[in-house]
Design a protein that fits this description.
By secondary structure, this protein is an alpha+beta fold. Helix content is 39%, strand content 7%. It is built from ten helices and four strands, in the order E-E-H-E-E-H-H-H-H-H-H-H-H-H. Helix 1 packs antiparallel against helix 2 and helix 7 crosses helix 10. The longest helix is centred in the middle third of the chain and has 20 residues. The chain is globular, with a radius of gyration of 21 Å.
């Protein structure tokens, strides 16, 4: 029984629609958000407990809570989610190193960097660590034979462009210096949103239009964009926010208790819709 792992549990209030505490773990550290990058690793079942203990060890080393979401753990597949405070640059850099070590753990234990999700563009570097040059060259020849015009998933796996999996999640100073004072009190909530889209499934405007710009998730993304300065007020943005009827159905479905309608209402007031 030497491989038995001591588990830790923290009770967190849940809204009635939730089926799991996993999604509101960000309540432990306000301002953090789960980042699903070093996930989908798989190890032999015999090495599963060892993988869990090693991930826990390096998580403590970097001081970054790591949630192990294990829906298909029975096949040795693990989905570590890093809780990152994106307002702190040093923690963000630590998260990159933690991600690297998680992938290395999988490979060292005879596993793979992707059990089911595929390589895409974020795992290219780790695929090259997992397989030999001969293997990859053979794989590339097969791809070229079956897809001579490179129209199927182009610029992935064999791309020579170096991809940083964190490109879309780069630390941004703006969380500490936003000029949109009317949204300042919602920063932590907007950071914690990982766009799970539970809110979309009950939104009347999304269900009618099937357009994400008219969904609660879409409006939260736009609100974040307004804070960062990456998005400016346009007629389309105004249309997105003005179409919201503030029914609050989305808030009932939100695992993180984000006051979505309150945020939308503040934006509406300040962009003149």
């Amino acid at each position: 029984m030497k491989d038995v792992i001591k588990t830790e549990w923290k009770e967190i209030p849940k809204v009635p629609v939730q089926t799991s505490n996993v999604f509101d773990m960000t309540a432990i550290i306000p301002g953090t958000r789960p980042v699903h990058i070093a996930e989908d690793i798989a190890v032999p079942i015999s090495k599963l407990s060892m993988a869990l203990m090693e991930i826990k060890k390096i998580s403590k080393k970097y001081g970054i809570p790591t949630l192990i979401i294990s829906g298909d753990v029975g096949r040795g597949i693990l989905h570590p989610a890093l809780l990152i405070d994106v307002r702190k640059k040093d923690k963000f850099e630590d998260a990159k190193n933690l991600m690297e070590e998680i992938y290395n753990i999988a490979l060292r234990l005879g596993g793979t960097v992707s059990g089911t999700h595929g390589i895409g563009i974020s795992r290219i570097a780790y695929l090259k660590k997992e397989y030999s040059r001969t293997y990859l060259e053979t794989f590339q020849k097969i791809k070229k034979t079956l897809d001579p015009n490179n129209i199927l998933n182009p610029d992935k796996i064999f791309s020579q462009v170096k991809i940083d999996p964190f490109d879309e999640l780069l630390f941004k100073e703006w969380w500490n210096k936003s000029d949109l004072s009317y949204l300042n009190e919602y920063k932590e909530k907007l950071i914690s949103c990982d766009f799970c889209a539970f809110c979309n499934i009950v939104c009347p405007t999304f269900l009618k239009t099937k357009s994400h710009i008219f969904s609660p998730r879409g409006r939260l993304i736009l609100a974040r964009g307004l804070i960062t300065g990456e998005i400016r007020v346009t007629p389309k943005l105004k249309e997105s926010f003005s179409s919201c009827i503030l029914c609050k159905k989305c808030e009932e479905k939100c695992p993180k208790n984000i006051p979505i309608c309150e945020i939308i209402e503040k934006v509406k007031e300040n962009i003149g819709v």
